[in-house]
């Protein structure tokens, strides 16, 4: 029986049916088949400009992929890999008709993978302000990082991380305006203090206001206790003191959700706005901690 098994292996080798070579070791650069690479589901960058993608496809068709992508061995599928950085090059290579792509292989934990993906995009300035903020918030919520730890890992100040996360408290419509570059992060931070941020944001876009003009507008609206009616249905909000507004912003940054505080002579209510049941579950989990 042993001789028969040996003969079988000899025939396989002669016929070119020997076992495939072992995968390349971590830390090496090698060409990997595109269909063996899996997208990183927590990739912070969600939007790619169509015109930039098309230009990259043409460049790859003409010159190939000049800079390797970064991957790690897939945690569950042997011989496969998971993207860390370089998704745009990976997608463009598929559209360009390539079958393999140069890749640098590294061993990374889940949290190291997310940190590297965020850092690579932040360094390239390729994330929208909301994508950057969501990446930081994911590190804090899923991997229990503090704002200070995130700041140190990303090479940013703690105030930069805190201000970025505060943007997640803005209404979804304003976050969309940021994603479409209709507003800058500076505009958005100023709008956090507006009694009605959405109406104020529309006013800013319609008038083409600068960040400084937006800050002045918000101060005026806070003093007036309302917002100019730039569209039907614009509502008037009650006047809030700076301490209450600051507390709302801090709670919103901590939760990643919009928080409203109504206070009258030391009595009132706190409202937390959520947009999905998962967010409600997270609120309940935090409130029930012991």
Description:
With 290 residues, the protein is α/β, with parallel strands linked by helices. Among the domains are: 29-109, Conserved hypothetical protein from pyrococcus furiosus pfu- 392566-001, ParB domain, CATH 3.90.1530; 170-239, Orthogonal Bundle (Arc Repressor Mutant, subunit A). It contains 13 helices and seven strands. It has helices spanning 2-14, 50-63, 87-95, 110-124, 129-143, 147-154, 158-166, 172-179, 185-191, 197-207, 211-224, 242-255, 277-287; strands at residues 29-33, 37-38, 69-73, 81-85, 100-105, 259-264, 267-272. The strands form two sheets. The protein has a five-stranded mixed beta sheet. Strands 6-7 form a two-stranded antiparallel ribbon. The longest helix has 15 residues, at 110-124. The protein is elongated. The model is unreliable at 1-15 and 226-238 (pLDDT under 50). GO terms for molecular function: DNA binding. InterPro entries: Chromosome_partition/occlusion, HTH_ParB/Spo0J, ParB/RepB/Spo0J, ParB/Sulfiredoxin_sf, ParB_dimer_C, ParB_N. Residues 30-122 form the ParB-like N-terminal domain. Belongs to the ParB family. Pfam families: HTH_ParB, ParB_C, ParB_N.
């Amino acid at each position: 029986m042993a001789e028969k098994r040996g003969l079988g292996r000899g025939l396989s080798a002669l016929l070119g049916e020997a076992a495939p070579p072992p995968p390349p070791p971590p830390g090496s650069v090698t060409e990997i088949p595109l269909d063996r690479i899996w997208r990183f589901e927590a990739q912070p960058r969600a939007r790619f400009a169509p015109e930039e993608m098309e230009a990259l496809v043409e460049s790859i068709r003409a010159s190939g992929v000049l800079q390797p992508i970064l991957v790690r061995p897939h945690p569950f599928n042997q011989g496969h890999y998971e993207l860390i950085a370089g998704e745009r090059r990976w997608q463009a290579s598929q559209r360009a008709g390539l079958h393999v792509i140069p890749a640098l292989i590294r061993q990374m934990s889940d949290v190291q993978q997310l940190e590297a993906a965020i850092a690579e995009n932040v360094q390239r300035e390729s994330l929208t302000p909301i994508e950057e903020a969501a990446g930081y918030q994911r590190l804090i919520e899923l991997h229990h990082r503090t704002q200070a730890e995130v700041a140190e890992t990303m090479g940013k100040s703690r105030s930069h991380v805190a201000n970025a996360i505060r943007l997640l408290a803005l209404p979804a419509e304003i976050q969309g305006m940021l994603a479409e570059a209709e507003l800058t992060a500076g505009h958005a931070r100023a709008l956090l203090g507006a009694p009605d941020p959405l109406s104020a944001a529309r006013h800013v876009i319609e008038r083409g206001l600068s960040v400084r003009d937006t800050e002045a507008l918000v101060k005026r609206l806070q003093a007036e206790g309302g917002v100019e009616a730039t569209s039907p249905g614009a509502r008037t909000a009650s006047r809030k003191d700076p301490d209450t507004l600051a507390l709302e912003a801090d709670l919103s940054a901590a939760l990643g959700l919009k928080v409203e505080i109504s206070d009258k002579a030391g009595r009132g209510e706190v409202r937390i706005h959520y947009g999905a049941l998962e967010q409600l579950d997270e609120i309940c989990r935090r409130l029930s901690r012991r």
